[in-house]
Structure formats: C-alpha cells, structure tokens
User: Fold this.
Amino acid sequence: MKTYQEIIKENDAEFNDGESLIDFLDNYTNEAGDDVRDQEDNISEYADGLVPIYYNDIVKEWHENGECHEMTLEVCGEYAEKDIYKMMTSDLYFYYEQQLREDYNKFIELMDEQEDDEDETNDEDETDDEAKKEMAIEAGLTEDEAERQAEDIK
Assistant:
C-alpha cells in the first residue's frame, strides 16, 4: 500500500495545494500514517496557523489570493469586526480552511479508490488460486497436495 505522501505527489494536479496537505498530515498523523482518515477536526486548527500575523504579510497574501476576497461574508454573512486587517485575516482563514478541506476530501477519495483497486487485485489472486487448486484436484491430486502446489506456484 502506498503512503499518503506518494498518493498526494502522484495526484498533485488534483489538489489545490498538495504540499500544504502533506504538511498538514505530517503534523497531525502518527509516523505510520494509519490515522490519516481521522483528521477532519484538525483542519480548522491547521488553517488558523496558515494565516499570517504581520500586516504587510496579511495584505500581500490577501492580494495574491483573490478567491479569498469576501469569503467571510459567504461563510458568516458579515464580518465580526470592521478593522480592515481583521477582515482580511478572516477572509484568509476561511479561504485556507476551504482549500485544505477540499484537498483532504479529495485525498480520502483517492485512498478509497486505491483500497478498492487493491481489494479487486486480491480477489483476482484468490480466484486464480482456487482455479489452480481445482485443476490440480481434477488432475488426480488430493486437496492438500493441490493446495501446496497452488502455494508453490505463487
């Protein structure tokens, strides 16, 4: 089975920001990566950490990411504060959260597809083993001998 880093890198074109998704999963999963499916609750926290804190960085990020403009209005209906920097920060937060959530959900879909493909491959292998075993039994071998022969062929 592929690691989450390999899956993301192989499908990088399907993500808004594959590197950010890898960083997110690196920060919130264990070393084995077996808890990658349980990270939905951590997306907001990680997105909050992506928002810049210095005014010039806030303005720069906000201008570079035109899709984030008025994102807070779409999500909340109004800005909580009328300070321009806080408004921009709020827009950036919701923008980063949306992008990461979309990427994470796409990643989960790709993981599911990979697992389905692996299951189909395993099912085909089992079917092949059964067919080989049946052929050996028809050739006059006992069931145990047929099973051993099928194992030897693998």
The chain has seven helices and no strands.
